[in-house]
Design a protein that fits this description.
Elements (H helix, E strand, L loop, with lengths): L1 H48 L24
């Protein structure tokens, strides 16, 4: 009799585990979808608000006339 009760309890636990695994799978898919949507939204907002790429270069580094040793013409 005790064996049947233990098997019943184990089957209930396995049903809960299977349900939780399915829920986690669906939540992971939803999270990927939301992340993809946010990435696309932020990419389009970034193009509108900041069209020039941000670099680590010094401002005016490509301009030879702004160097300290250059003489104005």
């Amino acid at each position: 009799m005790a064996v049947i009760v233990v098997i019943g309890i184990l089957s209930i636990i396995l049903i809960f585990v299977a349900g939780n695994l399915r829920t986690l799978y669906l939540l992971r898919n939803d999270l990927r979808l939301v992340e993809r949507q946010q990435t696309n939204r932020l990419a389009t907002v970034g193009l509108v608000l900041n069209p020039q790429p941000v670099t680590n270069g010094l401002p005016g580094a490509g301009d030879l006339h702004t160097s300290p040793g250059a003489q104005p013409k």
